[in-house]
Write a structure and sequence with these properties.
about 160 residues; alpha+beta; five-stranded mixed sheet; 5 strands
Length: about 160
């Protein structure tokens, strides 16, 4: 049975493996190289995710199938200039073979519930422009686009991320 639960210190090595898989999958996509260089959590993954476990302004969850960890998610809280709080889902990844069985939905529900309990005004999540499955997933989970980031790469001779 699929499910979701808060991550523990024992989950960190598996989360690091999944974070590496996510980076491998997303970096070649349109916008992925710049995402990896700017928005994605940088390696070493173990240190960062372990530190996030103890924070009050973040929630790390794992998604499971029959108690086997097959995905992970992360939401952090951002204080806005208005004093309100915005939830920001920075990671939500499920192994390809475990997709479409409800693991992502279970993790997303846990992240949304955390944000609601923290009195957030909303939740942002990023989907790369060519990643139709991620866009569809978020839309089916009640998310709508609130902004589009436009980018123009510049030829610097050595190749630029993006």
């Amino acid at each position: 049975m699929e499910g979701s639960r808060p991550a523990t210190a024992q989950d960190v090595p598996r989360i690091a493996e999944l974070a590496d898989l996510a980076r491998q999958e997303l970096t070649p996509m349109k916008g992925g190289a710049l995402w990896a260089a700017r928005e994605a959590i940088a390696p070493p993954f173990e240190n960062t995710y372990a530190a996030l476990l103890g924070r009050d302004d973040a929630l790390v969850v794992v998604g499971t199938v029959d108690d086997t960890v097959v995905g992970f998610g992360l939401v952090t809280l951002e204080r806005l200039r208005t004093g309100d709080t915005l939830g920001v889902i920075t990671d939500l990844f499920v192994e390809p073979d475990a997709r479409a069985v409800g693991v992502g939905e279970a993790m997303a529900e846990a992240l949304v519930a955390f944000c609601a309990a923290q009195d957030c005004v909303g939740i942002d999540a990023l989907a790369l422009p060519g990643h139709r499955a991620a866009k569809n997933f978020f839309e089916e989970s009640g998310f709508t686009a609130r902004a589009l980031v436009m980018h123009r790469p510049l030829d610097r001779g050595g190749g630029e991320p993006g």
